[in-house]
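Quick question: what would this complex look like in 3D?
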Amino acid sequence: MLEQAFVKKKVLITGGLGFIGSNLARRLVELGAEVLLVDSLIPAYGGNLFNVHGLEDRLKINIADVRDEYSMEYLVQDQDFLFNLAGQVSHIDSMRDPYTDLEINCRSQLSILEACRKQNPGIYILYAGTRQQYGRALYLPVDEQHPQYPTDINGVNKLAGEWYHIVYHRVHGLRTCSLRLTNTYGPRMLVKHNRQTALGWFIRLAMDDQEIQIWGGGQQLRDYNYVDDVVEAFLLAAANPEATGKIFNLGGRRPVSHLELIESLVSVAGQGSYRLVPWPPERQRIDIGDVYSSYRCIQETLGWEPRVGLREGLERTVAFYRQYREHYW
Amino acid sequence: MLEQAFVKKKVLITGGLGFIGSNLARRLVELGAEVLLVDSLIPAYGGNLFNVHGLEDRLKINIADVRDEYSMEYLVQDQDFLFNLAGQVSHIDSMRDPYTDLEINCRSQLSILEACRKQNPGIYILYAGTRQQYGRALYLPVDEQHPQYPTDINGVNKLAGEWYHIVYHRVHGLRTCSLRLTNTYGPRMLVKHNRQTALGWFIRLAMDDQEIQIWGGGQQLRDYNYVDDVVEAFLLAAANPEATGKIFNLGGRRPVSHLELIESLVSVAGQGSYRLVPWPPERQRIDIGDVYSSYRCIQETLGWEPRVGLREGLERTVAFYRQYREHYW
C-alpha cells in the first residue's frame, strides 16, 4: 500500500531536519513524495542539515520556527499531508524553562491547527505524541486507555498538544491522528548533549570509550523502537483512513532492562564501559519506574509491528555514527 | 476547624472579583483572614466590583491580569494561601479564540507557579479544575480516575493548568491541590451573556420573563453545586494538609435533568417559560451527553458534601438578582 500512497503527494514535515523527521523525509522521497521540510535549527535541538545529506536536490527545506504563525499559515497551503514532528523534547529543559516548552508544544500546535483549519482543511495531520503523557505506569504494558498522569511539564504540554489535534478533529472535522512514541533511537538522533534522550547520550559515551553510569541497579524496564519502525508507523497511519481521529501507541518488541540496554550497547560498540551508581536525587524525583507500551491497537488496525530488534538497531546506529561522527559530535 | 484556620492568615484570590472568588472572599473575611483580591475586570468575564460591595474596607483589591508575570511575582509574596481561580471559562470562546484561552489557562498558571516557587515556596495553592477535563462520561458517576478526554480547547487547557500544579507539587515540592468543579451557580455569577454558563443565562431569561429553549428533549443529566458549598470545599481543602498534592471532584447531591432544572427555575422565579426545540448542530457537536460526578473522595478525605438543594439554591439566587439586578444585567 505504501508504494502508491505518497507518489507525487505534497508532504510537509515540521521538525523535518530532526531525528525522526529526516528519516521520514528520506523514506518519503524514495516513495515519490514532494517533500517540504520546516525546521528552525535551534542549536540545542535535534535539527541538523547533514541529516538530509545527499537528498538536497530531491526535497525542499524552509527554515522557520513553528512558533511563527504567519509562516506556518503560508506553508501548510496545498499540502496533502503534515507530519507534525517539531517539538521541544527535553524533559529536563521543560522544568528549567517551562515557557519555551509551552510555546513550542502548545501554542505552536494551536497555530498550526488554526492554519490548517483556515487554509487547508483537507490536509491529513499526523502528530507525534509520547509515552511520557502517561507518567508512571499504573499497569503494564501501558495501553491507550491508561490514565494520563504526566510527571513533568513536557509531558503535560505534549498531552495538551495531542488533545488539540483530537479536539480539532471532533469539532472542526480536521483529519488528525496521534502516535504516542516510546523511546526511539537510530541514525540521526541527537547525541550532542544529554538533555534530549538518555540513549543518544549513552551511544556517544560508549563511542567515546567513556564510562556510562547506570543509576540504581539498572533493573527498570523500558521499550525501544528503531527509527525505521517509527517511520513505517507514521506512513501506515497517513495512508490508511482508518487512523483518522485515533490515537495509537507504538511500542518495543519486548521490555528491556536499562542494564541489558547498556550491556548490549557496549558490546555492539566494542568500546565504553559501565558502572552501577546510586540514583541522583533530582533525577529519581522525576523517574517513573518500569514503563513499556502495548502496540496491539495499531497492530490490529494498521498492521504495524516493530521489526528491528535491539541488537540489530544498535549495530546500525553505531555503524552510522562511526561513518558520520564529525557531523554529530 | 474552619473557624480557626484562617484567622489573620494572608490570602490571595486570583479572579477574586469573579463569581466564586468573591463568594470565597466574603467567607474568608468573616473568618478573619487578610484577603487580597487580584482581578483584571476583563469586561466579558465574571469580575464585578459590586461582588464585594460592603466589604471594601475589609479586604484589598489589586487590579492586575494573571498574564502579567511581574505583578504576580510581587503579589504572591508573603501570602499563606493562594486560591487560584482566575480563568477563561467559556467553552465557546475557547474554540473561537484558542490563544487567549491558552494564555490565561496555561501560560498564566505556569507563571503563577513559577512566581510561588521562586518567591514563596511555602504557600498553599488551591486550583479550580473542572469536570470538563473528563469530556464525555465513559461511566457514571465520573470519579477522579475517569480518563480525561476533553472535548474543547478550554477543557484541554484546564487539564494542562491543573497538571502544572500537580507536577510542581511532585517535582518542586509546592503544596498544591485541585478541586474539579461541576456546574456551580448562585449569587454573583455572570448573567450578562450566554458564553460562560448556560444556567446563568437561563436565570436571566427567566427573570426577564423570556422563553428558555431546551435543546433536544432536555433529558440530559448534569449535577449542580450551590456556590456556598463550593466555597466550603475550597476552605476545607486549604485547612487540611491531607489535601496536599491531591485532586478532588466536587459533585451535586443528585443528577438533575435539564428539563427539571428549567422547570424548577421557572417555578422559583415565577416568571419565564420554556419550549423544547431541536439541537442546534454546532452545539450538539460539542455536547457531551449525561455527565455528573462522584464526590466520594472529598467526602471521605475532608468530610465535604453539598448541603444546599437545587430548589433552595435557585430561590436564594433569584432573590439575590431580584435585589441587585441593576449591577448584573
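Answer marked as accepted. The mean pLDDT of chain B is 95.
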